[in-house]
Design a protein that fits this description.
This protein has one domain. Helices cover 77% and strands 0% of the residues. It is built from 12 helices and no strands. Helix 2 packs antiparallel against helix 7 and helix 4 packs across helix 11 (218-241). The chain is globular, with a radius of gyration of 18 Å.
Length: 270
């Protein structure tokens, strides 16, 4: 069963880490191993729950970026030129990871979803953030060329390796193609909104009944609410922090959590 404390822990972790460049998937996978969540017959339901609570983070972005999302909706129906331009770029950036996920997602999950690949990704990502010298551009969301959206989308595909962090690779790619820091953050969040919504809907359509049969409604709902609240806090903090700071703090964090994971693996705790 999914206990209330487990739902709280996993929901809080999901909300804090989903949009920070530290990998929510990696954190949920490792913490799940540590607390023995989702073993045996409950493994499929546990995997589905880890994806389903992303809906809390999705709602957080919808809430915080509701004006931009409304612009995208208006753009879909031809009532907002800037919204339409932004929506086209988001769809283009969404496609590479979506196609790779559909074609090879199950194989990648079988091969890579474990503490060792996550630890490697944490450490490599930490080094990248510490040695990378970003150049911040001035492009706004609707001004970015389509090829820039393709590059960001291809970068997002790297996050199919658990521990890499979708936020990390999309932020780096967005800054590399000339977006301003605020635009890069916004594009990363909005792209995550589309990507996470699609992944959540797909997994729930396949295994939603198993999730409810195994864990019921109450505990998963509590986890979702926790994910929403903590994601709102984390996103607002990150936006404010990056206005005057670099991404290096996340590099140090990734090295620290990666080193901790190495110790846990070496001592057979993981």
């Amino acid at each position: 069963m999914l206990s209330i404390p487990e739902a709280l822990i996993l929901g809080i972790i999901e909300g804090i880490t989903e949009f920070l460049p530290v990998s929510s998937t990696g954190h949920l996978l490792v913490v799940g191993e540590l607390i023995g969540f989702g073993t045996g017959k409950a493994s499929t339901a546990a995997d589905t729950y880890s994806i389903a609570i992303q809906f809390g983070a999705i709602l957080a972005v919808l809430f915080l970026y509701r004006i931009r999302v409304w612009s995208l909706v208006r753009g879909l129906f031809g009532a907002d030129a800037d919204g339409r331009a932004a929506l086209i770029r988001l769809v283009v950036a969404f496609l590479p990871a979506a196609l790779i996920g559909l074609l090879a997602g199950d194989a990648m999950k079988s091969a890579l979803f474990g503490p060792v690949p996550v630890t490697i990704a944490w450490l490599v990502g930490g080094v990248v953030l510490l040695v990378w010298k970003p150049t911040v551009g001035l492009l706004t969301l609707h001004e970015m060329p389509i090829r820039a959206a393709v590059i960001i989308g291809c970068a997002q595909s790297l996050a199919l390796w658990p521990g890499v962090s979708r936020s990390l690779v999309t932020l780096i790619a967005a800054l590399a193609v000339g977006l301003s820091m605020s635009t890069a953050i916004e594009f990363s969040f909005l792209l995550g909104l589309i990507t996470l919504s699609s992944a959540t809907a797909l997994d729930l359509s396949k295994h939603g009944s198993e999730l409810v049969d195994q864990f019921g409604i109450l505990a998963p709902s509590i986890g979702l609410v926790c994910a929403f609240i903590t994601a709102v806090i984390a996103v607002k903090w990150m936006v404010g922090y990056l206005e005057s700071h670099s991404l290096r703090v996340f590099g140090w964090y990734r090295l620290a959590i990666g080193a901790t994971s190495v110790v846990l693996l070496a001592t057979n705790v993981l």
